[in-house]
Design brief:
Blueprint lengths: L3 H6 L9 H14 L1 H15 L29 H19 L1 E6 L5 H16 L6 H15 L1 E20 H7 L1 H9 L3 H11 L5 H14 L1 E19 L5 E2 L12 E9 H10 L4 H10 L1 E4 L21 E16 L6 E8 L14 E6 L8 E5 L13 H27 L3 E2 L24 E2 L7 H18 L6 H32 L2 H8 L16 E6 L7 H14 L10 H12 L1 H7 L3 H20 L11 H12 L2 H9 L1 H29 L15
Antiparallel strand pairs: 1-13, 2-3, 2-10, 4-5, 5-7, 6-7, 7-8, 8-9, 11-12
Helix pairs in contact: 3-13, 4-6, 4-13, 4-14, 4-15, 7-8, 9-10, 11-12, 13-14, 14-15, 18-19, 20-21, 21-23, 22-23
Length: 696
């Protein structure tokens, strides 16, 4: 239980963070999440078929072996098979889904199309590094551990590398620095200019560099060779990487939360330059806290590690554990709240004697109204965040029963292959097996013992269990309710992906370069050459129908949609939109590549047909184009209605022949299309019996 003083320190903004209070809150959070960690541990073990006493040969050994030493102890992958199938479905749906940005306000309508295209580019181009991989990891976490937590931020970093430089190379970077080095008058000025020219250089290193240049003409200095300026999306393990207090129902209303992560010494050193981390804190961490056990939190406690084949922890000697503490703090003067970040170590409270602070960084996360994470719960059957089901939890009993049935059949087959030998007391065969010689005594002294008959019910029981498992997770493709469950799970995952993209786009609006948006969309803001208002808001939706993963079902659905167009005499169905839907259902990426806006397509057809008519007029015979027949016929009709063209058609037989051929090809193509449509529904839509379809 936190004290009143600690609770106050965790509520209001101070000049410095209360690291001691944060450490207390962190340890309490870890302790109170113990039951959830138990659930995750059980789910992890069940999915991977870890159990106490498991042997490499998948046989039972020791005093507790039942029904005998060496009996079958096989794996059953009921859980893993279904989790893997669902993960594959989730990722396939994400890659094939349609990403759309819908405007929240009227003023955003014009930009919604641009934003939609930009979001698709962010995902497909790799602008968000490892997006697909992080979402795949997240899908596994959501199904296996019941929670999906994704961090979304902005990663801006200059990657510095040491490079040998002589005085000429230094002169190319800074003529002023090279000049004063050659003059050699003021060492203090030279050292300051070295620090200014080469980011992250300390006084000590600058002095050494100056000495080396004067001695040998060459030194090593850091040079920026790679710049990173991209969205940062990371899926975090809910059982140790990222933690909220156990009582939380709405993650964004939590007073604090913790992200436990690991850095190499090199990465920590770079944080001093790129993120402003305290240099003394970083040096102390590298010297005293290097080397961690990076197994998850629930496996740190004595006697609580999962059983593995090696039963050994994973030690990382070069990593340093760091905790990012996020707090929703209130300014006591104006009652305004904000999201604050404190970077610390869970076991370090500072060293006053050496002047080392207890934290590396503290401050307001400018531009963030909420915690930089998106959280999705697998089952909303309880208000508390950590009261959730997992797929292993649901299928655990079925998997155990399937294992029992398989083990029993293998043991039965073992008895049938090598039955027990009945023999007089004291006359047991010295050896037994295929091709062995058995000493013959008297007839009837040795005989095979009885073996159990094959039980068909065991196989039927296993099949029943498998079908039940499929039904529980939405993988029974013959059951309509199972299809609804499957769609529900896909929608939940895609909604999470949409929220991640929304937050990533918001980060881009605040921190990303304007040039990227213009380069991708080709259309800057009409007023200002930039990426738009950082506060503009869009609803990001990612939709996918799981039936589209079935080619036959997808084809039937598209045929039904096409058939509806034959009944549409009032133009209520947009053919252009139908074409977009059909192409996107086949492959959304290719659809974006081949489909152009309707206005542009019409303009292009008009231009192409006009060019064809100009050539026909000049005496060149032109074939009809493969599409756009309706628009082409309108252009041709307008063309031949012109008085000068009509006159030439009457006087010039060859010109008339070329025009008739060109127009006839378009007319034939349109007739063929109409015949195909009639064949699809059996008759002309406008003449179906005595029904007046014009008013349907």
């Amino acid at each position: 239980m936190l004290s009143d003083k600690t609770s106050e320190e965790l509520t209001y903004v101070g000049k410095e963070p209360s690291v001691q209070a944060l450490r207390q809150a962190y340890n309490q959070t870890v302790t109170e999440l113990d039951s959830y960690f138990d659930l995750c541990r059980s789910s992890y073990d069940d999915r991977r078929n870890w159990w106490p006493g498991k042997s490499r040969d998948l046989r039972k050994h020791g005093a507790d072996a039942f029904p005998w030493e060496g009996a079958a102890d096989m794996e059953s992958h009921v859980i893993d098979e279904r989790v893997t199938k669902l993960v594959s479905l989730f990722i396939s749906s994400m890659k094939r889904a349609n990403v759309r940005a819908y405007p929240v306000e009227m003023g955003d309508i014009a930009r919604s199309k641009l934003v939609s295209n930009f979001l698709k580019w962010m995902v497909s181009s790799g602008y968000i590094p490892r997006f697909a991989q992080e979402m795949e990891l997240g899908a596994n976490y959501m199904l296996e551990r019941g929670l999906l937590i994704t961090y979304v931020g902005w990663h801006r970093e200059d990657r510095r590398f040491l490079q040998k430089l002589d005085i000429d190379q230094i002169a190319q970077m800074s003529p002023e620095l090279a000049a004063i080095i050659l003059e050699g008058n003021d060492d203090d000025q030279i050292i300051q200019l070295i620090k200014t020219t080469f980011d992250g250089v300390t006084d000590r290193k600058a002095k050494r560099a100056l000495k080396e240049i004067r001695k040998s003409g060459v030194t090593e200095l850091p040079v920026v060779r790679r710049q990173i300026d991209v969205p940062d999306v990371k899926t975090l393990a809910p059982d140790g990487d990222f933690m909220f207090p156990a009582y939380v129902t709405d993650p964004q209303r939590s007073p604090y939360c913790f992200w436990r992560t690991y850095y190499t010494a090199q990465e920590l050193e770079n944080k001093v330059v790129t993120d402003g981390w305290d240099e003394d804190f970083v040096d102390y961490m590298i010297e005293h806290y290097r080397g961690v056990n990076i197994d998850s939190i629930e496996r740190e406690q004595e006697g609580r590690r999962s059983i593995s084949l090696t039963d050994s922890a994973y030690e990382a000697d070069e990593l340093i554990e760091i905790v990012h503490c996020y707090q929703r703090l209130v300014d006591s003067e104006d009652s305004c709240e904000g999201i604050y970040e404190t970077v610390m170590h869970k076991d370090f409270d500072g060293n006053e004697g050496l002047g080392v602070p207890s934290y590396a960084k503290f401050g307001l996360m400018n531009g963030y109204e909420d915690y930089p994470v998106v959280v999705t719960k697998l089952s909303e059957d309880s208000k508390r965040l950590y009261d959730t089901q997992t797929i292993p939890d649901v299928l655990r009993g079925i998997q155990q029963q399937v294992k029992v049935e398989r083990d029993s059949r293998i043991d039965r087959n073992s008895l049938a292959t090598l039955p027990p030998i009945m023999h007089p007391v004291g006359n047991a065969p010295k050896d037994w097996g295929p091709g062995r010689y058995i000493p013959y005594r008297r007839k009837g002294e040795f005989e095979f013992g009885p073996t159990p008959n094959f039980n068909q019910g065991s196989l039927e029981m296993e099949q029943t269990m498998e079908r039940q498992a499929n039904a529980l997770v939405g993988l029974d493709y013959e059951d309509p309710m199972s299809q609804m469950r499957r769609q529900f799970l896909v929608d939940k995952f895609l909604a999470h992906c949409a929220d991640v993209l929304k937050l990533a786009y918001r980060c881009f609006q605040r921190f990303g370069p304007d040039s990227i948006f213009f380069r991708v969309t080709g259309s800057p803001d009409p007023q200002v050459f930039d990426k738009g208002d950082p506060d503009e808001n869009f609803d990001i939706l990612i939709n996918y129908d799981v039936l589209n993963s079935d080619p036959e079902a997808q084809e039937n659905k598209l045929n039904q949609l096409v058939s509806l167009t034959q009944l549409d005499m009032n133009g209520r169905i947009s053919i252009d939109r139908l074409l977009e839907v059909a192409a996107s259902s086949i492959d959304p990426t290719l659809a974006d590549a081949i489909l152009q806006p309707a206005e542009e397509a019409q303009e292009q057809i008009v231009k192409q047909v006009t060019d064809d008519l100009t050539k026909i007029f000049a005496g060149i015979e032109m074939p009809a184009r493969p599409n756009g027949g309706q628009i082409a016929m309108q252009v041709i009709e307008q063309y031949v209605s012109q008085p000068d063209i009509a006159q030439r058609l009457e006087q010039d037989e060859s010109f008339r022949a070329r025009m008739e051929k060109y127009q006839g090809q378009y007319a034939f193509a349109m007739q063929q299309m109409e015949n195909a449509q009639i064949g699809r529904i059996g008759t002309n839509p406008a003449q179906m019996g005595e029904m007046d379809t014009q008013n349907i």
